[in-house]
């Protein structure tokens, strides 16, 4: 929005004309797009993008879920979530927001564009489908099997069946590849309603191909040949090449369009700190990003992370809060970044895939790009850091994994998913993460959850399909301890 001079005053109007609640409480989750057919497709896209980021980056889904499961943050107060007791309404709000405010509006934008084939409609439809693929991938990686093919069919499917996450993966890859072929930079596209790229078709092609790399790499241990084929084709077509390609949501200075973390820290300054896990490791390797990721503790003036999963409540002035940039009103939210792609290509190269470079080259590019993104631009300092944390083919999972985890700071959900996929440890094999020190509050999880349980509302709202989905989970119970299909 900052880059493209966008304004979001229309969001209030959209809430009034039936795009769904602008609050985080929903009395009813209805897969119908609420008769939004008269709304400009650009508004539908913009509304979906804002809700997607607000419900991925905020204090609830990020602070009390993703950033805790990735162990980048901890809780000095209200510590239950770091011990895996998630509030049921928060879980439901994530599910509802993605289906109701993100996916339904994207589906409606596709329908409108395809029903009125004017200049730019094919590009607009393709962009909406690419962003739909991003949203569905987030949902299926959090929950496993989810409503998919029937989920956005309005009143015809108020009780949509759940589809296999493995089947969803295959369809997402197919959809993304098809949209890359459709996108045509010589034709018109979305304008300021696209708050990520302003309708830039070339950027959207890179985003789609980079998303293919994310999806394919996540399943690489279960279907290595399909993953290899998809990744090599995506790289050949064109993925992110630098931070200039990052898919960002640019927040504004004032509510309700400011960074939601900024808004939460206006009144809830003691709820979150940076974790001891993150601070101690960054101090151990002398990581210059620490001064950006965290603030010195007010009492000591030192960087002090709070122990993860403790039931002991302490004053926030004793530990490091997230850094001032992290809490800034206009700090962007990240849908996907070049550092993630560079580390993904490092892994792909190490696995023997043809991706246009060596694992070590991409590893260095990932570190450098992450440093640059967070304001560390001293080339000598970056080179010294890389020399002190060299690439090792013999220990690639940990070497790439820990730098990817550091490079994906604040992308809590994705950092958690990479943590459990790679089973990340420190280079050399020493344990990096800890179990909640006061013990887990979930009887099915000791160390780290592998998925989120389904919202309890689904047990009554979509009971038959819910029970069928649960029956397919290992052990036949809706457990955070059940591994996703793509996990080794």
UniProtKB/TrEMBL annotation:
Gene3D superfamilies: 1.25.40.390. This is Starch-binding associating with outer membrane. It comes from Olivibacter domesticus (Pseudosphingobacterium domesticum). It comes from the Bacteria. PROSITE patterns: PROKAR_LIPOPROTEIN.
């Amino acid at each position: 929005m900052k880059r493209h001079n966008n304004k979001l005053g229309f969001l209030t109007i959209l809430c009034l004309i039936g795009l769904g609640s602008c609050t985080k409480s929903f009395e009813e989750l209805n897969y119908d797009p609420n008769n939004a057919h008269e709304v400009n497709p650009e508004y539908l896209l913009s509304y979906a993008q804002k809700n997607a980021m607000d419900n991925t980056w905020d204090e609830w889904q990020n602070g009390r879920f993703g950033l805790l499961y990735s162990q980048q943050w901890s809780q000095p107060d209200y510590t239950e979530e770091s011990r895996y007791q998630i509030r049921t309404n928060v879980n439901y709000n994530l599910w509802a927001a993605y289906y109701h405010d993100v996916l339904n509006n994207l589906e409606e934008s596709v329908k409108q564009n395809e029903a009125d084939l004017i200049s730019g409609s094919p590009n607009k439809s393709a962009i909406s489908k690419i962003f739909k693929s991003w949203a569905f991938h987030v949902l299926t990686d959090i929950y496993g099997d989810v409503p998919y093919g029937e989920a956005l069919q309005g009143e015809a499917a108020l009780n949509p069946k759940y589809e296999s996450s493995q089947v969803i993966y295959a369809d997402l890859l197919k959809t993304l590849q098809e949209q890359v072929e459709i996108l045509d930079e010589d034709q018109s596209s979305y304008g300021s309603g696209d708050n990520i790229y302003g309708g830039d078709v070339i950027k959207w092609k890179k985003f789609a191909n980079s998303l293919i790399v994310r999806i394919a790499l996540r399943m690489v241990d279960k279907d290595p040949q399909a993953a290899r084929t998809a990744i090599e084709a995506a790289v050949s077509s064109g993925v992110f090449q630098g931070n200039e390609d990052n898919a960002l949501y640019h927040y504004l200075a004032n509510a309700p369009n400011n960074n939601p973390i900024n808004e939460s820290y206006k009144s809830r300054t003691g709820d979150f700190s940076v974790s001891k896990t993150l601070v101690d490791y960054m101090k151990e390797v002398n990581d210059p990003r620490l001064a950006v990721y965290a603030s010195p503790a007010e009492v000591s003036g030192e960087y002090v992370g709070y122990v993860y999963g403790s039931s002991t409540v302490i004053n926030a002035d004793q530990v490091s809060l997230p850094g001032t940039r992290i809490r800034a009103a206009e700090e962007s939210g990240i849908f996907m970044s070049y550092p993630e792609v560079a580390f993904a290509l490092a892994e792909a190269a190490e696995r023997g895939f043809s991706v246009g470079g060596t694992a070590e080259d991409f590893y260095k590019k990932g570190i450098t790009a992450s440093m640059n993104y967070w304001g560390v631009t001293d080339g000598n300092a970056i080179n010294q850091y890389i020399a002190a944390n060299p690439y090792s083919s013999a220990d690639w999972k940990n070497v790439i994994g820990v730098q990817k985890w550091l490079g994906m700071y604040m992308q809590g959900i994705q950092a958690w998913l990479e943590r459990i996929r790679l089973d990340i440890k420190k280079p050399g094999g020493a344990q990096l993460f800890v179990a909640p020190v006061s013990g887990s509050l979930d009887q099915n999880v000791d160390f780290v959850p592998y998925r989120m349980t389904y919202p309890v509302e689904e047990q009554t709202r979509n009971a038959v399909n819910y029970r069928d989905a649960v029956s397919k989970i290992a052990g036949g119970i809706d457990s955070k301890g059940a591994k996703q299909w793509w996990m080794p």
